[in-house]
Amino acid sequence: MAVKIVTDSTADLPDEIVKELGIEVVPLNLHFGTTTFKDGIDISVDDFYDRLINTNEFPTTSQPSVGDFLEKYKEIIDDSDGIVSIHISSKLSGTFNSAIQARDSLEGKNKIEVIDTGQVSMGIGLVVKACAEAAIGGATLDEVANLSKELSMKAECFAAIDNIEYLRRGGRIGRAAEFIGTLLKLKPMITLNDGLVDKLGRARTFTKAVASLENIIRDYGSVEALSIMYSTPTPFAEKLSNSLDELLPKKGSVILTRLGPVIGAHGGPGAIGIAMIRKSE
To answer: Which helix or strand (DSSP H or E) is residue 160 part of?
Structure first.
């Protein structure tokens, strides 16, 4: 048996990585009016963005229930050496709290570690991937849990937003609220600081915003892991992936992935993100 890795759907991990590494994903909920979808299960990424762009319904999101986590933990705990459950920032979602409550209600709660990454999207996903690889390699529960905490501290996530209305209406913009409200037609760049969305900068065009993100990443020098995320198809994503590949120790290992429905509901069409794990100093 090995340690099992659980995450939530805001990690935006590509399906092939989830399947290859045996990662368990608990979906968040997406609401269009009175209709509720399980993120990544009841609605595809393409169908979500088609609905987002072509209808007047603005989606809302909600955390998984305690019961959702209980069901997942009970399903896998007996066939594992423990569970490391790795999640979106607790300052942006109640997902972490649902996972904690589920763990605490189980008799085998000492075999479950729940981690608040303080991140979103592939800022979570890169941590999850590394922990799943460590678990497959035979790492213990404590070793995987410690690795997840260490990598979460080194994770960074940046984004350029094409349409600020989705961020504004989504409501989870933290310290960036005043900044977003004064942008007019400028393109905002945002990041995560201490688990909250924070301002990073602004640009007159989206092209300049993406170029600024690339420069920020390059200022870090080489990195341990890197992912490019995008909501709707855009040439910027592949260009960034090809350009930044040289920063990684293994060439061709940039992960290119879509922003899923829950993150996309806040980032909106046209959004571009970059997540990375910094190298240890």
So the answer is: strand 155-160
Among 266, 86, 63, smallest CA distance to 159 is for: 266
pLDDT, tens digit, for every residue of 26-59? 999 999 999 999 999 999 999 999 999 998 888 9
| Residue 138 reports pLDDT greater than 80 | yes
Please calculate the CA angle 249-254-256 and round it to the nearest 5 degrees: 175
Q: What is the pLDDT of residues 217-246, one digit of tens each?
A: 999 988 999 999 999 999 999 999 999 999
Cα separation, 256 vs 274, whole angstroms: 10
Is the Cβ–Cβ distance between 91 and 195 less than 8 Å?
A: yes
Domains and CATH numbers, the chain: 4-153 (3.40.50.10170), 155-278 (3.30.1180.10)
Q: Model-level pTM greater than 0.70? A: yes
State in Å, rounded, how far the first CA of the chain is from the last one: 34
Q: Which two tokens stand for residue 223?
A: 């990195």
Q: How many CB atoms lie within 10 A of CB 261?
A: 31
